[in-house]
Every structure is written in C-alpha cells, then in structure tokens.
Automatic annotation (TrEMBL):
Keyword NADP: no
Pathway: Lipid metabolism; fatty acid beta-oxidation
Protein name, entry field: Acyl-coenzyme A dehydrogenase
Residues of the Acyl-CoA dehydrogenase/oxidase C-terminal domain: 367-514
Pfam assignment, any one: Acyl-CoA_dh_N
Length: 817
C-alpha cells in the first residue's frame, strides 16, 4: 500500500515538473528495485521485460520512430488540414512573446516582471508637452464634427508642420523616430480631445505606406517618399478593403496584369514609353484619408499571363505606391463614418498603367504584399485602436467620476447610489485593464517583437471594453450625454464605437477566428513544429515534437488536477501579500488552458478550425490570462501603490472570472461529452470557485474616481485637460473642488432649511438671507456662489436656435444669474 502511494506521488511529481523521459525511466526503475530489495516484493520477470521494452522504445529514437511516432506521423499528415498561402503567411507573420509563456502552462513570472518599463525619452516627453498639447488646444471637436465635417485648415497645417505624420519615420529621413510607446501616448492624448484629429494622425503612422516603406521600400523609394511623408508634403492612405473583401482581405478582387505600356510621371512630368509595368483595376471603400491623400498605397492581386517576368502566372498580392494625381486614379469622394469627421472614402481606377518600380520594394517584392500587410498590421493593431480605446476609458473615468460626485438627486451625489457605483467600477476597472494590456504589448514592440497574437487580443478586447466603458459613462451622465452640443464630451465617441469595432478586422471575426486560430499554432510549444514537420515530411523533427507534446499533455493533466484540488495555494508566487493569490491562480489556469487546447485539437482535429464558438472561448481564455498578467505588471510598474489595490483587484478578479466562465462554456459545448466530463473533474474538482470582484471592491473603485487622489490621477494620466473653466471638461475638477470645499456650508444651509429658519423660497435667496443674518461669512457666500455656478456649468446642456442651430450657452445664465 505504501509503495503504491509512493508510485502515485512519484508519477505526480515527475509529471508536475515535466521530467524528461530518461528521468521517468530511472525513477520507475528505482521504484521497481525498491519493491524487490526494500519492501521484499518479488517483481516478476515479465514486468521487467515489459518495462525494458517500453524503456527502449521511449528512449531510443530509431525504435520510437519505428514503433510509435512513425505510424503517428503518417496519420498526422493525412488529418492535418491543408493551409492556403495566405494562412501560412498570417501564421508566420510576427513573433510570439509573453503569449507563449501563457500557453506554456508554466508562466515565468520573473520574466514578466523583468521586462523593462516603457518610458519616454526627453524628446518624446517634450513633444507630448509641447506640440501635442498645443494641437489639443486647437481642436474643437463640436466644430469639427458638426460644422466643418473636417479638421480646420490651420489644424491640418499644424499637424504637417510639427511632424505628426512622421512620428515613425527615422530621423535620417527627417522624421521624429519615436518609439511605439511614444506613438501610442501621442495618439491617446489627442484622442482624449477629439477622435477626428487622432485618426488623422494615427493612420499615416501605423496603417499607411510609411510603415511599409520603412521595412520593405527600395532605397530610392525611401529617399524620395519618407522625407516628404515626415514633413507632411505627402498625405498617405492605404487601400486594401474592397466592397467584396472586408475581413477576408486576402480575397480582394482588384488585380494588376503585367504588360508593357506608357505613362507620364505626375511628379516630374516626364513621359516614359514602352516600359514594363502593370495595368491595374481596383475598387476600394472605407479608406481613411483617401479623399485628401496625395499618395495611394494600393493592394491588388498580380498576374503575369504572358510570362513577362517568369514562369509563374499567379504572382500573388502585391502592394504599390501610386500618386493620386496619376492618370486614371479616381479619388476625392468621401464617406461619413458615424459620429466622426475624419477623412474616409472610396478610390477606384480601371486599367491604370503603373511601372514595376512603383511596387513597394520594387519587382523583387511582387507577390509579397500579404506578408508585408500582415506583419505591419500586427504592429498597427497594437497601437492605433487600442490607444483610442484607452483614451475613451480615460475620458470616461475622468468625466464620470467628477460628474457623479457633482450631480445630486434626492439630496445625494448620484455616484453614491449603488447602481451608479456599479457602473463606475466597470469604467475604472476596464480603463485599468485596457492601458495595462496595451503598455505591456508596447514593451514587446519596443524590444523588437511583433506580437501578432497579442495585437489581435488588444484590438478585440480594448475596443470591446471601450464600448462597455462608454455605455456606462453615457448611462451615468443621463440627459447630460444625450443632447449633442459643445458641452457634450461623450456622445461623439459613443456614436463612433462601431467604427473601432468594425475596422482592422471585425471584432466578431477577430474573437472567433484570429486570436486562437493564430495563437494555438504560433504560441503552442509543439503544434507549429509538428505542422512544419508534416509539411516538410521531416519524420525526425516530428518525433522530437510529438514526444515533447505528449509529455506536455501528461504534465498539464497532473498540474491542473493538483492545483485544482489545492486551489493553487501551494504554487509559488514572485510577490507576496494580497497579489500572491493572483499569480498562483494564473499559473493554475495557464496549465488548464494548455490542457483544454490540446484536448480540443485532439478530439476535433482539423474541424476545430470551423468550430468558431469553441475557438472564441479558447481565445477568451488566452486573452484574459494576458489581461490579468498585464494588470499585475502595471501594478508593480507603478510601485505597487496601496491606493490602487481596489482597482487592481477588480481588474484581475474580473479577468479571472471571465477566464473561468470561458472554460465552463467550452466544456459545456465540447462535442465529446465523456472527455468534457473528465476534463471538468480535472480542472474544476470543487466546481467553479472563482467569483467576480465583490461589491465592496467595486465601491472602492467608484469612490476613487470621485475623489481627487492618486488612483484617479494614475487612471487618467496622459489625457488632455483644458485649464479653461469654460471648457466642458476643464470645468469638472474646479467644480468638484469647489463643491468639496463648500460641502460643510451647504450642509449647514440644508439643516437650517429643514428647521424652518429661512423665510425665502429659492436657494439663491436663502443664501443671501444666510449672509445677511450672519449665519455665513462673505467668504463662504462667495465660495458657495461660485461652487453653484460651476455646478450648473457642469450639469447644463446646449440648446439651439431653431433656425440657426447655434447654441447660446450664456442665455439662461444671464436670465438666472
């Protein structure tokens, strides 16, 4: 009995610590010997023979391949679904980083905490404090979206003159050469003032030809275009999406045929005859900056039916740079994306001849467009929309916290009502999650990584959290946020939510196909190795990968069961105190996630690719592992401030709860019910024990938004706030300060009113009466008067002349005061 217990413990320890096969062999041999010589049990010869045969097969590669991995390799090659070229390029694009650790089942928390904290250089900080601040002061979002439907000419010129369009361009070409972190913080700050200006700045830096030129352009292309892009002489756009190919960008119908032709270069006016080039036809829609662009980045499928370049006819997706003044290029019309006024529109052309030299990177990069786009998109999707989402969260936190404290109903600040308090906790918690997630990814980008899987995580989860935060902010503000006008600082961002949800890969597709579809292959320690071995028919490499994979699965079974039984209490943590349990739970669920991934691939095989609901839940697991770990990294980066513990707890506990629910939903819908039942007992032996953040923590988060303190400051750092009290956002903190300072006086006045001490009826008359009777001093009278005026400025909404549609913010002010 004791020997059996020892065997179980031995197997569990070997599996838990992922011992190699040789160590398993030695350990079990020692146990068998101990049975015979320590416990006095005779081990039959047959057992030793079987053990010897198994040991030989497992430890000798030529035998293992002959008996086990060779036949498995044959089956694997048959059942592995074929990959299209675009799928292969998407999977090969970018790199894996911290996401690989999360997929490993044993995240290296010291590695996470050792990642360098992102920082701004002196030049980057000066740009944020100088030109970016100045740009924000110039932006009047109501005027831009309601009246001009565009940025004013002076704002456009300022953006060009100060180098905003060349933030990513290297200094040797006249650009600013900012880090990805600085790029994101500039976009975030501008977006807290106005989405139109932010989009106009971010697109040339993350989704335009500039990014492609820097990585793939010829020296001639770089020397000509990059200085012009940096100075704003050229305004770029990139045309990929067509009416018939949205999320499936690889299916674009636009095409270019290799041929000989003639053209006039619009840049020099020089005529070129009988040159080798392409006759391109395209129809694109939803192209940001297209109506005002001077240079068009164009993606199309390239064909060479006459074999002018070689034997290959279908060359593949290709990217070219075409001046918009070039003959046949149609551009200038625009779309109106909901709630925003940034330039966006169609472009089209039919049989437009361009030389091969206009291909980005030259003719050597013909057919390489899809790889180029996927690699660059993985960078851009970490920056642009996640930064705008962070900006929305900051604005929602800053404004809703102050407004909920200033606005009162039934004699109480609305933020103190539990229903409002619950919504505010979500705003603060989601904002913390969004910025933490992006900052960690930016750390990877600036260290040379291109985390394509994490870029998809950020694109989906940050924009979805932005949607939730803005919805809650609109609810708390109520009528204040419903009426459009210069005083409304939320509605335009709220109206524009579908833009972020739709572009750069629709969110539904990103969640159900991309996050896990890429993550399972790229981040898994063995799957990509196995697939590559099958594609190259490399049996030796498959042998190494599959044996490691089996060990990996066995380990995760034991690790998940042990940590589930013990609640992960015996797992190590890099930090003590209240955060230790979070690291332990994340380790537990990393193993569980890895196990579920392998069991999904094992039970469903290639059909998992089409089980989008299951894939989405697996993606949710990976995403929430990342989000929770990013929050822990942020907390330590900020110096582990005790004041931030409530918002950290809310953010991490909600991510862990969402992770648990995704696992529960996955197990509830896994087709193999027997396998699902076994996995549920292994992963959740005591049931679903994790709960969402409790009401007490939520209230603490809400209160931190309503108080002028360090947690609120850290949540909203980096946003633009006008110092002008006539500004609808700028007035919030002065009003909040004034109200807090005069609360004792207001309480005194309310008590006198309840006791019937006033003869007057209105609040204004009672205030004057209190001054005349000596109940309050002149200083208190002036302070209360100012606080009430500022409160009114915060609460009021705009009204317009029915004919002129011009607001008169001062009309009622003059009538009442």
């Amino acid at each position: 009995m004791i020997s059996a217990v020892i065997l179980v413990l031995l197997i569990g320890a070997l599996a838990y610590f992922r011992a190699p096969v040789l160590l398993w062999t030695i350990a079990i041999a020692v146990w068998l010997l101990s049975l015979q010589f320590v416990w006095g049990c005779q081990v039959p010869v047959a057992v030793w023979v079987v053990f010897g045969v198994i040991t030989a097969v497992l430890n000798l590669p030529f035998l293992r391949r002959a008996v086990f991995t060779g036949p498995a390799f044959s089956v694997f090659k048959k059942i592995t679904p074929a990959m299209s070229q675009t799928e292969q390029e998407a999977i090969n694009a970018g790199t894996v980083w911290w996401d690989r650790d999360l997929f490993s089942g044993k995240p290296d928390w010291q590695r996470l905490l050792s990642f360098p904290d992102p920082k701004l250089t002196a030049d980057e900080q000066a740009f944020l404090d100088g030109p970016t601040e100045e740009l924000c002061k110039m932006v009047d979002d109501w005027k831009i979206t309601h009246e001009l439907k565009d940025l004013p000419p002076e704002v456009w010129q300022f953006i060009k003159d100060k180098g905003f369009l060349g933030m990513i361009v290297k200094k040797k070409y006249g650009g600013l050469e900012f880090s990805n972190y600085a790029h994101a913080k500039v976009v975030t700050k501008i977006a807290t003032r106005g989405g139109t200006a932010a989009v106009s700045v971010m697109v040339p830096n993350s989704l335009g030809p500039g990014e492609l030129l820097q990585h793939y352009g010829t020296e001639a292309q770089k020397d000509y275009y990059l200085p012009r892009l940096a100075k704003g002489i050229e305004v770029p756009c990139f045309a990929l999406t067509s009416p018939y190919a949205g999320s499936d960008a690889g299916a674009i119908p636009d095409f270019g045929i290799v041929c000989r032709g003639s053209y006039t270069d619009p840049r020099s006016g020089q005529r070129f005859d009988d040159v080798l080039g392409l006759r391109v036809s395209w129809e694109k829609r939803w192209i940001t900056l297209a109506p005002v662009a001077t240079i068009l980045g164009l993606a199309f499928k390239m064909y060479d039916p006459d074999h002018l370049l070689g034997d290959k006819e279908d060359i593949g997706i290709t990217c070219a740079l075409v001046p918009t003044e070039h003959e046949g290029v149609c551009i200038g019309r625009r779309h109106f994306p909901g709630g925003a006024a940034f330039m966006n529109g169609p472009t089209w052309g039919k049989d437009v001849f361009i030389p091969l030299e206009w291909i980005i990177g030259g003719r050597e990069y013909a057919g390489q467009g899809w790889r180029m786009l996927v690699e660059c998109l993985s960078v851009g999707r970490c920056i642009s929309l996640p930064a705008m989402s962070v900006a929305s969260g900051k604005v929602a936190s800053y404004t809703t916290g102050a407004y909920a404290r200033i606005r009162d109903q039934f004699g109480l600040s609305i933020g103190k009502f539990e229903g409002v308090d619950e919504a505010m906790a979500r705003i603060g918690g989601f904002t913390y999650q969004m910025e933490a997630s992006q900052d960690l990814a930016l750390t990877g980008l600036d260290s040379g990584e291109k985390p394509s899987v994490l870029s998809a995580v950020l694109k989906y989860h940050n924009t979805e959290r932005m949607r939730k935060a803005l919805n809650d902010a609109m609810d708390v503000h109520g009528g204040k946020a419903v009426v459009l006008g210069p005083r409304n600082y939320l509605a335009r961002a709220y109206q524009a939510i579908p833009i972020a949800i739709t572009v750069e890969g629709a969110n539904i597709l990103t969640r159900s196909m991309i996050i896990y579809g890429q993550g399972a292959i790229r981040c898994h320690p063995f799957v990509l190795r196995e697939i590559k071995a099958a594609m190259s028919n490399d049996g030796a490499e498959f042998d190494k990968a599959i044996t490691g994979h089996i060990n990996f699965v066995i380990s995760n079974v034991f690790r998940s069961l042990w940590m589930g039984l013990t609640g992960a209490k015996l797992v190590g943590s890099p930090k003590g105190g209240e955060v230790a349990t979070y690291y332990k739970q994340l380790t537990r669920f990393s193993s569980a996630f890895a196990l579920l991934s392998d069991m999904a691939m094992f039970s469903l095989g290639g059909s998992l690719k089409f089980r989008e609901k299951l894939s989405a839940r697996l993606g949710d697991m990976l995403s929430n592992l990342y989000i929770a770990s990013a929050c822990l990294k942020r907390f330590e980066r900020d110096g582990a401030p005790k004041e931030d513990l409530p918002v950290l707890k809310w953010a991490v506990e909600m991510a862990l709860y969402d992770l648990q629910q995704a696992m529960d939903g996955f197990l509830a819908n896994l087709p193999s019910r027997t396998l699902a039942a076994v996995l549920r007992k292994v992963i959740f032996p005591w049931g679903l024990t994790l709960k969402p953040a409790n009401d007490r923590i939520g209230t603490q988060v809400a209160r931190s938004l309503m108080e002028l303190g360090p947690t609120r400051d850290r949540l909203t750092r980096g946003m633009f706030v006008s110092q002008d009290e006539s500004d609808p956002v700028g007035v919030l903190v002065p009003a909040l300060k004034a109200m807090l300072e005069t609360e004792p006086v207001e309480q005194k006045l309310r008590k006198l009113a309840r006791d019937g001490q006033f003869k007057s009826v209105t609040a204004r008359e009672r205030l004057a009466e209190a001054l005349q009777s000596g109940v309050i001093t002149q200083v208190e009278f002036d302070a209360v008067s100012r606080a009430r005026k500022l409160k009114r400025d915060v609460i009021m909404v705009d009204d317009f002349d029915m004919k002129l549609e011009q607001p008169d913010a001062g009309l009622l002010q003059r009538l009442i005061f």
